Amino acid sequence: MNKFAMLGIAGVLGLAAAPASLAQYDQYAWARVTDVQPIVRVVRTELPRRECVTEEVTRMTPGRSTTGGTLAGAIIGGVVGNQIGRGNGRRAATAAGVLIGSGIGHSNAVRTNTTPQTSVEQRCNVYNEYYEEERVDGYRVSYEYGGAAYVTRMARDPGDRIRVQVSVRPAAF
């Protein structure tokens, strides 16, 4: 057996044989609670809210085709342009009358051929609502034991008394 192994065994045997006065003893006792204060924090919470409104909506929708009105406007415009122009300008006046008349005829057909369509639609908006609430994170507990005052933090309110651990060990010389 080597020298270090023998020292280790001797050390273990020496501790086992040590007098009881060198060992540490733990005992439990009850201490009187003198004050309990909740530890409170304010928490801000965001809650999305959806708000919907139902309303009537009227839209103008095209009824019939606007082709007939456009053609009629082109014919009338062409006849008027032909009547106004003379000589070589007659062709240009007729062409201009056709273009202007077709535009006027189309606009008139769109205006007179639309019908109102009413429907009920729902519009929704989402917005965030904030609220604050207080939450208890724990308790600041003041207590008294052996004539001395102590303070600790606990998860729950302990009531009138608190269990404490009392350690006894020898003082160093």
Write up what this structure looks like.
This protein has 3 helices and 4 strands. It is of the alpha+beta class and 173 residues long. The protein has a 4-stranded antiparallel β-sheet with strand order 3-2-1-4. A hairpin with a 2-residue loop joins strand 2 (114-145) and strand 3. The relative contact order is 0.27. The model is unreliable at 2-22 (pLDDT under 50).
Summarize the structure.
The protein has 173 residues and is an alpha+beta fold. The chain has three helices and four strands, in the order αβααβββ.
- N-to-C terminal Cα separation, in Å? 36 Å
Domain module count: 1
Q: What order do the SSEs take from the amino end to the carboxyl end, as H and E?
A: HEHHEEE
Structural class by sheet pairing and helices: alpha+beta
- Please tally the helical runs, counting DSSP H or I stretches of 4 or more residues: 3
Assign an overall shape. rod-shaped
Total number of strands: 4
On the 0 to 100 scale, the average pLDDT is: 79
Lateral strand order in the biggest sheet = 3-2-1-4
Set out the fold topology.
Layout: H1 3-16, E1 25-62, H2 67-84, H3 89-113, E2 114-145, E3 148-154, E4 161-168
Antiparallel strand pairs: 1-2, 1-4, 2-3
